[in-house]
Amino acid sequence: MSGSEFTLFSGGAQGAEAEFGKQAELFGVQEVNYSFEGHKIERTRGLRMLTQEELMRKDVSLTYVSKLLDRNFSNGPLIRMVLRTIMYQVDAGLEIFVIGAILDNGTVNGGTGWGAEFAKICNKPLFVFDQVKNGWFNWKDNAWRPVPTPTITKTHFTGTGTRFIEDNGRAAIAALFAQSFGAPK
Questions:
Q1: Does the pTM exceed 0.85?
Q2: Do residues 32 and 56 make contact, with C-beta atoms less than 8 angstroms apart?
Q3: What's the pLDDT tens digit per position in 64-116?
Q4: What residues form DSSP beta bridges with 109?
Q5: Domains in the chain: boundaries
Q6: Is 177 within 8 Å of 26 (Cβ atoms)?
Q7: 3-state DSSP call for residue 81?
Q8: Is the domain covering 3-181 a CATH 3.30.450.150 domain?
Q9: Which of 4, 33, 39, 84 is the most buried (most CB within 10 A)?
Q10: Are 13 and 42 in contact (CB under 8 A)?
Q11: Would you tell me how many other CB atoms lie within 10 Å of the CB of residue 96?
Protein backbone atom coordinates (compact mmCIF):
# COMPACT_ATOMS: atom_id res chain seq x y z
CA MET A 1 0.00 0.00 0.00
CA SER A 2 1.05 3.55 -0.61
CA GLY A 3 1.96 5.81 2.31
CA SER A 4 -0.66 8.30 1.10
CA GLU A 5 -3.37 5.86 2.25
CA PHE A 6 -2.10 6.05 5.85
CA THR A 7 -2.43 8.66 8.59
CA LEU A 8 -0.04 9.16 11.50
CA PHE A 9 -1.62 10.45 14.72
CA SER A 10 0.89 12.12 16.99
CA GLY A 11 1.55 15.19 19.10
CA GLY A 12 4.27 17.02 17.17
CA ALA A 13 6.47 17.45 20.27
CA GLN A 14 10.26 17.48 20.12
CA GLY A 15 11.95 14.10 20.04
CA ALA A 16 10.16 10.94 18.94
CA GLU A 17 6.94 12.64 17.83
CA ALA A 18 8.82 15.11 15.63
CA GLU A 19 10.81 12.23 14.15
CA PHE A 20 7.65 10.21 13.40
CA GLY A 21 6.29 13.32 11.63
CA LYS A 22 9.46 13.83 9.57
CA GLN A 23 9.32 10.22 8.39
CA ALA A 24 5.60 10.48 7.65
CA GLU A 25 6.24 13.48 5.43
CA LEU A 26 9.13 11.71 3.67
CA PHE A 27 6.95 8.71 2.87
CA GLY A 28 3.83 10.68 1.86
CA VAL A 29 1.90 9.61 4.97
CA GLN A 30 -0.78 12.03 6.16
CA GLU A 31 -0.23 13.53 9.58
CA VAL A 32 -2.49 14.71 12.42
CA ASN A 33 -0.77 16.36 15.38
CA TYR A 34 -2.95 16.95 18.43
CA SER A 35 -2.03 19.99 20.48
CA PHE A 36 -3.53 22.73 22.62
CA GLU A 37 -3.19 26.47 23.04
CA GLY A 38 0.20 27.35 24.52
CA HIS A 39 1.84 23.95 23.89
CA LYS A 40 5.29 24.20 22.30
CA ILE A 41 5.62 21.68 19.47
CA GLU A 42 7.97 21.13 16.53
CA ARG A 43 5.56 19.71 13.93
CA THR A 44 2.71 21.83 12.62
CA ARG A 45 1.85 19.72 9.57
CA GLY A 46 -1.68 18.42 10.12
CA LEU A 47 -2.02 20.45 13.31
CA ARG A 48 -5.26 19.76 15.18
CA MET A 49 -5.75 22.23 18.02
CA LEU A 50 -7.98 20.73 20.69
CA THR A 51 -10.52 23.01 22.34
CA GLN A 52 -10.85 23.30 26.11
CA GLU A 53 -14.08 21.32 25.88
CA GLU A 54 -12.37 18.53 23.91
CA LEU A 55 -9.50 18.43 26.38
CA MET A 56 -11.89 18.16 29.32
CA ARG A 57 -13.51 15.11 27.68
CA LYS A 58 -10.21 13.26 28.15
CA ASP A 59 -9.64 14.28 31.75
CA VAL A 60 -8.02 11.46 33.69
CA SER A 61 -7.21 11.19 37.38
CA LEU A 62 -3.51 11.81 37.97
CA THR A 63 -3.82 9.59 41.04
CA TYR A 64 -5.01 6.76 38.76
CA VAL A 65 -2.23 7.35 36.20
CA SER A 66 0.41 7.60 38.94
CA LYS A 67 -0.80 4.35 40.53
CA LEU A 68 -1.02 2.54 37.19
CA LEU A 69 2.51 3.58 36.21
CA ASP A 70 3.93 3.28 39.75
CA ARG A 71 5.34 6.82 39.68
CA ASN A 72 4.20 10.30 40.63
CA PHE A 73 2.97 12.89 38.15
CA SER A 74 2.78 16.52 39.19
CA ASN A 75 -0.67 18.06 39.29
CA GLY A 76 0.43 20.90 37.01
CA PRO A 77 -1.85 21.99 34.19
CA LEU A 78 0.73 21.25 31.46
CA ILE A 79 1.12 17.56 32.32
CA ARG A 80 -2.67 17.17 32.51
CA MET A 81 -3.06 18.68 29.03
CA VAL A 82 -0.26 16.52 27.59
CA LEU A 83 -1.83 13.34 29.03
CA ARG A 84 -5.15 14.33 27.47
CA THR A 85 -3.59 14.86 24.03
CA ILE A 86 -1.89 11.45 24.34
CA MET A 87 -5.33 9.92 24.85
CA TYR A 88 -6.53 11.53 21.61
CA GLN A 89 -3.49 10.12 19.79
CA VAL A 90 -4.05 6.59 21.10
CA ASP A 91 -7.81 6.75 20.51
CA ALA A 92 -7.26 7.70 16.85
CA GLY A 93 -4.65 5.06 16.05
CA LEU A 94 -5.43 1.41 15.40
CA GLU A 95 -1.78 0.46 16.06
CA ILE A 96 0.50 2.22 18.53
CA PHE A 97 4.26 2.70 18.07
CA VAL A 98 6.27 4.16 20.95
CA ILE A 99 9.92 5.12 21.38
CA GLY A 100 11.21 5.00 24.96
CA ALA A 101 12.43 2.49 27.51
CA ILE A 102 10.53 -0.36 29.16
CA LEU A 103 11.01 -0.26 32.91
CA ASP A 104 11.33 -3.25 35.24
CA ASN A 105 7.66 -2.89 36.26
CA GLY A 106 6.56 -3.35 32.62
CA THR A 107 5.61 0.28 32.04
CA VAL A 108 7.34 2.70 29.67
CA ASN A 109 9.33 5.61 31.06
CA GLY A 110 8.07 9.18 31.30
CA GLY A 111 4.72 10.60 30.24
CA THR A 112 5.03 8.34 27.21
CA GLY A 113 4.23 5.53 29.61
CA TRP A 114 0.64 6.76 29.82
CA GLY A 115 0.25 6.35 26.05
CA ALA A 116 1.51 2.77 26.24
CA GLU A 117 -0.72 1.95 29.23
CA PHE A 118 -3.75 3.54 27.59
CA ALA A 119 -3.05 1.44 24.46
CA LYS A 120 -3.02 -1.67 26.68
CA ILE A 121 -6.31 -0.61 28.31
CA CYS A 122 -7.83 -0.07 24.84
CA ASN A 123 -6.46 -3.46 23.71
CA LYS A 124 -4.65 -1.97 20.71
CA PRO A 125 -1.59 -3.53 19.06
CA LEU A 126 1.36 -1.92 20.88
CA PHE A 127 5.01 -1.82 19.83
CA VAL A 128 7.77 -0.12 21.80
CA PHE A 129 11.30 0.51 20.59
CA ASP A 130 13.38 0.36 23.77
CA GLN A 131 16.35 2.68 23.24
CA VAL A 132 18.26 1.10 26.16
CA LYS A 133 17.77 -2.51 24.99
CA ASN A 134 18.10 -1.35 21.35
CA GLY A 135 15.18 -3.37 20.07
CA TRP A 136 11.45 -3.54 19.34
CA PHE A 137 9.02 -5.18 21.75
CA ASN A 138 5.36 -6.10 21.33
CA TRP A 139 2.84 -6.25 24.19
CA LYS A 140 1.19 -9.64 23.83
CA ASP A 141 -0.46 -11.93 26.39
CA ASN A 142 0.29 -9.43 29.19
CA ALA A 143 4.04 -9.45 28.57
CA TRP A 144 6.66 -7.66 26.47
CA ARG A 145 8.09 -9.87 23.73
CA PRO A 146 11.07 -8.97 21.54
CA VAL A 147 10.16 -8.71 17.85
CA PRO A 148 11.97 -7.73 14.65
CA THR A 149 11.19 -4.33 13.15
CA PRO A 150 7.39 -4.29 12.91
CA THR A 151 5.35 -3.22 9.90
CA ILE A 152 2.65 -0.57 9.98
CA THR A 153 -0.46 -2.49 8.88
CA LYS A 154 -3.33 -0.21 9.96
CA THR A 155 -4.14 2.90 7.91
CA HIS A 156 -4.59 4.91 11.13
CA PHE A 157 -1.59 4.51 13.43
CA THR A 158 -0.07 6.40 16.35
CA GLY A 159 3.58 7.37 16.76
CA THR A 160 4.68 8.83 20.08
CA GLY A 161 7.50 8.64 22.56
CA THR A 162 10.25 10.28 24.49
CA ARG A 163 11.42 13.84 23.99
CA PHE A 164 14.95 12.47 24.48
CA ILE A 165 15.31 10.47 21.29
CA GLU A 166 18.65 8.80 20.62
CA ASP A 167 20.22 7.92 17.28
CA ASN A 168 19.00 4.32 17.60
CA GLY A 169 15.44 5.61 18.18
CA ARG A 170 15.64 7.74 15.02
CA ALA A 171 17.00 4.76 13.08
CA ALA A 172 14.20 2.54 14.43
CA ILE A 173 11.53 4.97 13.20
CA ALA A 174 13.21 5.24 9.78
CA ALA A 175 13.39 1.43 9.54
CA LEU A 176 9.73 1.11 10.58
CA PHE A 177 8.65 3.44 7.75
CA ALA A 178 11.00 1.84 5.18
CA GLN A 179 9.80 -1.66 6.13
CA SER A 180 6.19 -0.51 5.84
CA PHE A 181 6.28 1.69 2.74
CA GLY A 182 9.45 0.91 0.74
CA ALA A 183 11.50 3.85 -0.47
CA PRO A 184 10.71 7.46 0.53
CA LYS A 185 8.75 9.60 -1.96
A1: yes
A2: no
A3: 888 888 877 777 778 888 989 999 999 999 999 999 999 999 999 988 899 99
A4: none
A5: 3-181
A6: yes
A7: helix
A8: no
A9: 33
A10: yes
A11: 25
